[in-house]
Amino acid sequence: MNDPEMRGRVAQAPNLAALHPADHDWDVFAQLRTVKELQTKAGKPFLVLELGDLSGSIEGKVWSNSAEAMAAAKAAAPGSLLKLRGRVDEYQGKGQFVVDRLRVVPDDEKPEGYDPEQIVDPALAAVEDLCCRTLVFDIETVPAHDRRELPTSIAAALSESATQKEMEPAALMGMSPFLGKVVSLAIGDGDAEGGIDDVTVLAVPPPGFDASACPKWLRLMDEAELLRAFWALCSRAETVVSFNGRGFDVPFLAARSLIHGVPVRVDLMSQRFSLRPHLDLLEILSQKGRGPSKLDVICWALGIQSPKGEMDGSMVAPAYERGDLVKIAEYNAHDVRATGAVYRRCRDLLLRYRSDWAAARK
Checking CA distances to 265, which of 199, 239, 292, 322 falls within 20 to 30 Å? Predict the structure, then answer.
């Protein structure tokens, strides 16, 4: 690779979305999300970076002949602001940023050309204290509409689907992001010492809810704010942990975000069998039809306290109608504590021995 100073001009990109293949190099600021240390077939080391800002994300490559950039990327802390110089190439139909130079920008530095509004998600303001390396989450959902007020064609489609699935229409509404909504999002730090005792729940209050009755761990906001906060927290996490998140939680959150016009800033659905950025515990523990693999079954088998108590998923919508938001949030928090306990057992006894777990870090 030629030195960029020898190749000619350098242009400043306002954000990652502005990058494109050109006959010059680019300077750009971005947040470092992940680093993977890999080797070519010839045995030479290289790095694959996930770079992000509010405009999107791009894959970065650091080859062995950019030794200083490689060392700086390896030493960078999670969520570091980087100033990068390099070129944009296309690989397998996607753009990638080939890095020649890289440095971490200190918090107290304001370099020329840096626009913090392109990097720092304003939604973080309400939840920045919840940022962590391993984010464990779970959601609770309820119907978003009165079934009696649905348009005729929508009501007919709902009834037909409910009949096929042998479900009550109200229950099915709560499972569809087009007919239901998120009312509770529980969040915990999966690597917390001693386990996840401190769970925070972001919740959407029902009409007439008495906010003065909220415990400190419950934060009230509307659904759009909840969604923005979730994606902002995911952008700061190295690993997002769920149980059946690929099957339900993430598609539901993504569709609700689409409805509210909230950008889905982190890809938690591609590369199904990849362990980062989204680790769905059901994917690595499911018995593929050889027996039940629900969370309470796995907790029982592992000797972990079951999240199931007086409440179950079928009781969430009626509780919400009664205004019993705190009870829903407690139930949601129990699921996150159980998921976190299962994660730690898998991390220590299973994942640490997998090369694809050890190879990726922030």
Answer: 199
